[in-house]
Write a structure and sequence with these properties.
heterotrimer; A alpha+beta (about 160); B alpha+beta (about 675); C alpha+beta (about 140); A: alpha+beta; Pnp Oxidase, Chain A; seven-stranded antiparallel β-sheet; 4 helices; B: about 675 residues; alpha+beta; Hypothetical protein af1432; about 50% helix
Chain lengths: ~160, ~675, ~140
């Protein structure tokens, strides 16, 4: 049984800023802004929510090569992790997904209100179009510490599943 | 002023294009305004700074100006110690719990780094960036280590400018804000210019302080010496003279600094160059070449520095006149100059500005140098941008228009102004032109050119004075009377320059001429004769000449804006009325201000009942001139008949006898014209 | 110069380092990489620069495959901008380097990081496209 490190899963479920990186067949990168993610149960999989206004070119890219790079970072402390792997499932977000997604948004708004100097957090976070979204699940192959500094890019000790 | 002026006809697609152009032009004008403002601000601060040599007082003035004039709310000046290892706050403004004396080590924070690197440091979002670096520090396993420096606790934006005189660091000027992105490149430029002067002023003040100390020392010595021996007195005198000379030298250097600042050119282009936004553009503009005829023989036998002094004196005078009409002296070639109008930002008035500037130069050149000028002007498309090898490039313009302007100049007679047909088309409504015989211009095809005779006055314009009307016979003597009145009472008011702001040339004089003609006409009127005889003629003329004089302080972009909404027009009218009242006050004619409210209500077409005679006479004359006079961007002005009929359809004249308007129409109308009042098409006069 | 994409004036507040930027690169073996950088600097009408203090996967990737995508956020209205960039060159001296170095030094010296948090180089990128991300309600 392979599991993602529990402290990292806990971090992933927190009010973190999340981004998606994919690339097309000609190796041109594309960037997306994710509105929440979860890794439930003993698993090596992460699911995240990609709003449909952003689904292109990512869905085409994932159909082409399946490669996912995703980061989650905390705004104030700059603590940040990158997860890399291959996509295993793509579905229209369900009502249950939407509930997690909205919970994430509320958490992030609260975080910005309480923790961060930035004005108008509700507008900042609430301004992102979230509905409808696609839930994308990928199997994590590598995790990197991405907190800025000399250790940025160092792999986190994690044994991926076979194959 | 032109209240009903927006009723001018214009074709559909043309109108859309004009409105689009207008938007761009308005924006550009607003930027020109801001830049104008900034140059003025710098000059103001400069003169304030140089008004004292007392260091503490001077620092106070500087910070006060930064806050009050430039709007930097939190600012401080730090002076470096002799070892140049740290800076200490010598004066500050906009901080509640901080005192002078706090220190900043060189190399620490934006201020310390500005001092160490001798470079401007402009920070825009410090809290976020410090958070980022702190995170890195945490990752490296170090404890948190935030350095406490003087300044705002919640600073986001900061600009620190090193104060350097002759490679020596005098101190640092710093401004701060708790807002993100508070300062832009233009602020940086402005503050850098101010900092240059601050640095030399501080340096001068310190030198002065030292001289004072020396002078004090000398006084003491002097006293001792006088007690000793008379023979020593001469030595003391010599030393006093030496010190006096040192002080005089200091004074001279201060004057030199001021002069250098005034020569700083080309000021208006620097912000664009600093932001690297000065890209090549094609635009409609006017190019003018001037030449000083016979300068070579005039200067033969002079010492070189005498030649330069003459020329520089002449260029200073010329530059002054050019900048008054929004021109830019692009280069000088010997005694010749090339001047641009309508660059770097396009303007509506480039051609009229050039011709006005040329007329000014030709009429005043004798006061500066006893030589004659030739002036050539050409309008058209030019390409403007940075030209030349990298790092040595200069702002310059290219295009046939430039070549043609130069040829116009060489073909101009002594004391004359020659313009191309393209320029003539743009300025003909405002200026009298004489067609020159067609000539072959070297390298170009045959061209018809024009000589500028002068500003077009009312009697020079058959569109506004119909030869068959009754007014035609009285126009010339009335115009002479008004000219004399103006020269006697308002010699200090530069009407041409005020009118050039919106192209309403000769408007005030015309209103006065028409009002005076109308008043005299009314004196013979069966019902109004008595009242007309009691109206003070001089007061009427003063009011007619000055009714919109507040234009001088209003934004030109706003004055020339087309398609105003009713609210915007009302606001403009209100501001113009207020500005006019202020100007009347400055001319010590505050008494006339009481005539402004009814007049402006009349212009707004808000008066329909009783109207006092002064208001109606000047109002009718004003509206008539606004309708019939040419203006920038207006199509064909109204014919005399069209204007009179339009006035009869205005609210104040509907369903009410208006004998004053009727008398005016009778005076102005062409002999054969029958006027009808619009809706009923019933003849009201024949 | 002519014909290339120009940065609009309204993006400038997003290039002051108020909100960290996100950058996606791709290695020559096809693996995408996402990371944050503290600031994207404007260089001229159609170039931007990224600073680096440490060698990273991003730095390695752009030297293999010069195409990157960057997201920057305007702190005033939170408008989000996407820039497609192509790595052009690295500067380790000159006016651009100095300007970035001075800003970094000003911050580093206030957090006890003088001489540690140092600019190694300024990677200059050509802007291939710039657009406001359609992710937000206006």
């Amino acid at each position: 049984m392979v599991m993602l490190p529990s402290d990292i899963v806990e971090f992933l479920h927190g009010p973190q800023i999340m981004a998606l990186g994919t690339r097309d067949a000609t190796l041109r990168p594309a960037m997306g802004r994710l509105l929440g993610a979860f890794a439930e149960g003993p698993t090596d999989r992460i699911s995240f929510f990609l709003p449909n206004v952003q689904s292109e070119p990512h869905l085409t890219n994932l159909a082409d090569n399946g490669l996912v790079a995703m980061t989650a970072g905390e705004a104030r402390t700059h603590r940040n992790y990158q997860f890399k792997g291959r996509v295993v499932a793509v579905r229209a977000s369900t009502a249950a997904d939407a509930a997690i997604r909205d919970l994430y948004r509320d958490k992030l708004i609260r975080y910005f209100r309480e923790e961060y100097f930035m004005p108008l957090p509700d507008e900042f976070i609430g301004g992102y179009i979230s509905e409808p979204s696609t839930t994308i699940t990928f199997r994590v192959a590598k995790i990197f510490n991405q907190t800025p500094g000399p250790n940025a890019g160092k792999p986190i000790d994690f044994v991926p599943a076979e194959g | 002023m032109s209240v009903p002026g927006d009723n001018q006809p214009a074709s559909g697609s043309m109108r859309t294009l004009m409105i689009d152009n207008q938007k761009v032009i308005d924006e550009l004008n607003a930027r020109i305004q801001r830049r104008d403002q900034e140059v003025k601000i710098i000059q103001q601060i400069s003169s304030e700074i140089n008004s004292t040599l007392d260091l503490e007082h001077m620092l106070g003035i500087i910070l006060d100006s930064l806050d009050r004039v430039l709007g930097f709310k939190h600012c401080m000046i730090l002076l470096s110690d002799d070892a140049a290892a740290s800076l200490s706050v010598a004066a500050l403004r906009g901080y509640e719990n901080q005192q002078p004396g706090a220190t900043v080590p060189v190399g620490q924070g934006p201020i310390g780094v500005a001092a160490r690197r001798r470079r401007v440091v402009r920070m825009a979002a410090m809290a976020a960036q410090m958070g980022y670096v702190a995170a890195v520090r945490g990752e490296m396993g170090h404890e948190k280590a935030q350095v406490k420096l003087p300044g705002l606790a919640n600073v986001q934006s900061q600009m620190a400018i090193p104060l350097v005189v002759k490679d020596r660091l005098v101190g640092v000027l710093a401004v701060e804000s708790a807002a993100i992105n508070a300062f832009d490149a233009l602020d940086e430029l402005l503050l850098s210019i101010v900092a240059n002067q601050v640095a030399s002023a501080i340096d001068n003040a310190r030198l002065y302080l030292r001289e004072q100390e020396r002078s004090q020392l000398l006084d003491n010595t002097n006293r001792e010496l006088s007690q000793l021996n008379e023979t020593l007195e001469s030595k003391v005198n010599a030393r006093t003279a030496e010190l006096t000379e040192a002080l005089g030298d200091l004074e001279r250097r201060k004057v030199q600094h001021e002069e250098l600042l005034a020569r700083m050119a080309p000021r208006e282009l620097i912000p664009l160059m600093v932001e690297d936004r000065l890209q090549a553009v094609r635009l409609n503009a006017t190019v003018m070449f001037t030449d000083l005829s016979g300068f070579t023989s005039f200067s033969a036998g002079m010492e070189p520095d005498e030649v330069f002094a003459h020329l520089n004196h002449y260029f200073a005078w010329l530059g002054d006149a050019i900048s008054r009409y929004r021109g830019y002296v692009n280069k000088t070639m010997g005694d010749g100059t090339m001047i641009l109008f309508g660059v770097p930002e396009p303007s509506l008035s480039h051609a009229t500005d050039a011709v006005l500037a040329a007329l000014t130069l030709q009429s005043d050149v004798g006061t500066t140098i006893s030589l004659n000028m030739r002036i050539g002007i050409s309008s058209g498309v030019i390409t403007a941008g940075m030209l030349g090898p990298r790092n040595k490039s200069m702002y310059d313009v290219l295009g046939e228009t430039v070549n043609v302007a130069q040829r116009m100049e060489s073909s101009a007679p002594l004391g004359g102004i020659v313009v191309t047909a393209a320029t003539a088309d743009l300025v003909r409504p405002y200026f009298l032109l004489e067609t020159l015989p067609e000539q072959e211009i070297k390298g170009l095809s045959k061209m018809t050119n024009f000589r500028v005779v002068g500003l077009r006055k009312l009697t020079d314009d058959p569109r506004r004075v119909d030869p068959s009307g009754r007014f035609a016979a009285m126009a010339t003597p009335l115009q002479q009377e008004i000219e004399a009145f103006k020269a006697q009472h308002f010699d200090s008011v530069n009407f041409v320059s005020i009118q050039a702001r919106d192209g309403a040339f000769y408007h005030n004089e015309t209103v006065a001429i028409l009002a005076l003609a109308l008043l005299r006409e009314l004196r013979g009127h069966p019902q109004l004769g008595t009242a007309a005889s009691q109206l003070d003629e001089a007061r009427l003329l003063r009011f007619a000449l000055l009714h919109d004089i507040g234009k001088r302080t209003l934004d030109t972009a706003r004055l020339n804006r087309r398609g105003l909404t009713a609210e915007e027009r009302a606001a403009l009218r209100t501001d113009l009325e207020r500005a006019t009242a202020e100007t009347l006050d400055r001319l010590e004619l505050g008494e006339l201000a009481s005539a402004l409210p009814p007049f402006y209500r009349f212009e707004a077409q808000e008066l329909t009942g009783e109207i006092d005679m002064l208001t109606e006479i000047v109002g009718v004359a004003d509206i008539y001139d606004a309708l019939t006079a040419p203006k920038f961007y207006k199509g064909t002005p109204w014919s005399i008949r069209g204007a009179l009929e339009d006035m009869m359809r205005m609210p104040f004249a509907i369903n009410r006898p208006r004998p004053i308007l009727a008398a005016f129409a009778e005076l102005m109308r062409p002999a054969a014209a029958t006027l009808t009042s619009g809706r009923s098409a019933k003849p009201v006069l024949d | 110069m002519a014909g290339t994409i120009a940065l609009p004036q309204e993006i400038m507040p997003a290039l002051q380092g108020a909100v960290p930027a996100t950058i996606v690169t791709c290695a020559l073996d096809g693996e995408p990489n996402v990371t944050t950088v503290s600031q994207v600097f404007s260089v001229d009408q159609n170039h931007v620069a990224l600073s680096f203090q440490f060698f990273s996967k991003t730095i390695r990737n752009v030297r293999e495959n010069p195409y990157v995508m960057v997201q920057v956020i305007n702190p005033m209205d939170f408008s989000t901008w996407l820039l497609e960039l192509r790595y052009d060159r690295t500067e380790t001296e000159g006016p651009l380097f100095d300007d970035m170095d001075i800003k970094l030094e000003a911050i580093a010296s206030m957090t006890g990081m003088s001489g540690i948090f140092k600019l190694r180089g300024a990677d200059v990128y050509e802007v291939l496209s710039v657009k406001k991300a359609p992710w937000r309600r206006d």
